[in-house]
């Protein structure tokens, strides 16, 4: 088995008495797109800044390519591409000059791929950076990152300020990295973005990881929504222990949620009542996210 590209083991970070990171543990494998989700203030950016060697951990360890994220930051940075959620640019340089400068900083050059990315992201690279909106500043950083030949790409709320069309371009580029066997850490609050692209997901709440796994694994722990219509009354279904939030529309029509492991038993019980209509919907990432936060007693911050 190949070694993990990134590994975090019981990472902690305190600012005075405030514990920004209490206990963070997860890893990213080669070729994996890993989603890192949580509300603002949960510790996502603090974790990423520690990975980048900007912040020194108070406890625990973070390694990238087997190297210590704090001690070996210079060596690590040669092999990563990073885009923050709010990009500051040199105001008197054009967008194209900034892209070329960012590439040169990493020992790389402007290529035909760079030109293609400028076109796909619909950026006027001749304008001065000081004239750019937040979305256009994000585009500059994303074009430079996607132009780079890196082994790990770290995106911290990268589509902040982008319109839906540009979000789609971003997602296509990440999926292309995945197809090329690259590893990606994506911190985002746009759950549909994470749901579409990520192989595994970590949910962070108040500086602690409360769940890590694939979307399928997380869905096994949650409930599907069932809409059913039957020939005979549905009252008996409401009494089943795996059925929750039962809402009768008519005596023979209802909407309810079912524990994932019991869906087969509930469908069998429905079939005995003569099913005339049945749809089951697995939980979305947003459903899972809210359920984990609510059951952990967390609140959005």
TrEMBL record:
Keywords: ATP-binding, Nucleotide-binding, Transport
Protein name as catalogued: ABC transporter ATP-binding protein
InterPro entries reported in the protein's UniProt record: AAA+_ATPase, ABC_transporter-like_ATP-bd, ABC_transporter-like_CS, ABC_Transporter_VariousFunc, P-loop_NTPase
GO MF terms held by the record: ATP binding
CDD domains, sorted: ABC_DR_subfamily_A (cd03230)
SUPFAM superfamilies listed in its UniProt record: P-loop containing nucleoside triphosphate hydrolases
Gene3D superfamilies the UniProt entry points to: P-loop containing nucleotide triphosphate hydrolases
Pfam families, alphabetized: ABC_tran
Residues of the ABC transporter domain: 6-231
Lineage: Bacteria, Bacillati, Bacillota, Bacilli, Lactobacillales
Superkingdom, natural source: Bacteria
């Amino acid at each position: 088995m190949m070694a993990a590209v990134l590994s975090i083991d019981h990472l902690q970070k305190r600012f005075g008495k405030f514990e920004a990171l209490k206990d963070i543990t997860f890893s990213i494998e080669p070729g994996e797109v890993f989603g890192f989700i949580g509300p603002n203030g949960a510790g996502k950016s603090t974790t990423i800044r520690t990975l980048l060697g900007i912040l020194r951990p108070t406890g625990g360890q973070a390694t990238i390519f087997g190297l210590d994220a704090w001690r070996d930051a210079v060596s690590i940075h040669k092999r990563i591409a990073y885009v923050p959620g709010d990009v500051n640019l040199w105001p008197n340089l054009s967008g194209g000059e900034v892209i070329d400068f960012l590439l040169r900083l990493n020992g790389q050059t402007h290529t035909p791929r760079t030109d293609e990315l400028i076109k796909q992201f619909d950026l006027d690279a001749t304008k001065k950076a000081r004239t750019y909106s937040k979305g256009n500043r994000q585009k500059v950083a994303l074009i430079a990152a996607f132009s780079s030949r890196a082994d790990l790409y770290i995106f911290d709320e990268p589509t902040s300020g982008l319109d839906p069309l540009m979000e789609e371009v971003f997602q296509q580029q990440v999926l292309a990295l995945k197809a090329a066997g690259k590893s990606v850490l994506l911190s985002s609050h746009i759950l549909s973005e994470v749901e579409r692209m990520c192989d595994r997901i970590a949910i962070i709440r108040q500086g602690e990881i409360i769940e890590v796994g694939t979307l399928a694994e997380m869905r096994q722990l949650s409930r599907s929504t069932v809409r059913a219509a039957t020939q005979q009354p549905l009252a008996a279904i409401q009494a089943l222990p795996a059925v929750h939030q039962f809402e009768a529309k008519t005596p023979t029509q209802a909407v309810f949620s079912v524990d994932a492991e019991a869906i087969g038993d509930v469908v069998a019980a429905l079939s005995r009542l003569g099913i005339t209509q049945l749809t089951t919907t697995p939980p979305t990432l947003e459903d899972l996210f809210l359920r984990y936060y609510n059951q952990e007693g967390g609140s959005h911050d």
